[in-house]
Amino acid sequence: MNSSVIVFPGSNCDRDVADALTKLQFKNKMVWHKDSELPKSDLIVIPGGFSYGDYLRSGAIAAKSNILKEIIKAANSGCPVLGICNGFQILIETGLLKGALLRNKNLKFISKDVYLKVLGNENKFCKNFKKGKVIKLNIAHNEGNFFTNSDHLKELEDKDLIPFKYCDKNGTINESSNPNGSLNNIAGILNEKKNILGMMPHPERMIDNLISNTDGVELFSSILN
Looking at the whole model, is its pTM more than 0.85? Predict the structure, then answer.
C-alpha cells in the first residue's frame, strides 16, 4: 500500500510515523505542505507536532496549506486519512471532522502514557483490535480536550464513531482516567463514512517493545490489511 505523510514547519512526529509505516511494509512518501499534488495514496497521515509553532489555534495555519486542498478532495472520495495529535487538530480546523480541541483541563502540557479502551472495531483503522481491548499509548499535547455539541455527541455515540476512550488499566472509563478533560473521555473520533480518524494519542510511538510497546501496531496493520 502507498502512504503519504504530510510535513509542516514545526512537525516533530512525521519521521516517527514514516518509520512505523515503513516497518509495516507501506511504501511511504513524505509530502511537503506547499506541494499542490498528492502522490498516489492508499493512506494519508497528518502527523503530530507543533505546525507553525501552534501560533493562533493549534493547526489553524496548517489547515490553510496548499496540500490540504488535495487531502480534502482525497478524503471526500473515500481515501483513509489519519490525523494524530496536531493532525487531529488540523482535521478539525479543515472541517473534515467536527468538534473542537480545547486547552487541557488543567491548562498544562501533558506528556505521558495513558490507557485507552477500544470501543469499536468496525472501521478500517481498528478492525485488528479486539473490541473492549485496553491498550497503552503516549500522549503529548496542550490542546487535546475534545468538545462538541449535544447533537454531534449523540451522533458519535449512536453511529459507533468513537473508536477510543481514555480509561484506567482495567478498562474503567471515568473522570479519574481522563487526562485532559475530553467530553465523555473521548480520545479519537471518526467521520460518518469512517474513512477519517482523528486521535490525540500517538500509535506510531508504540510499535517496538525495545522502546515502548507494540500496542500501536494493530492500528497500522488494520489499514494495511
Answer: yes
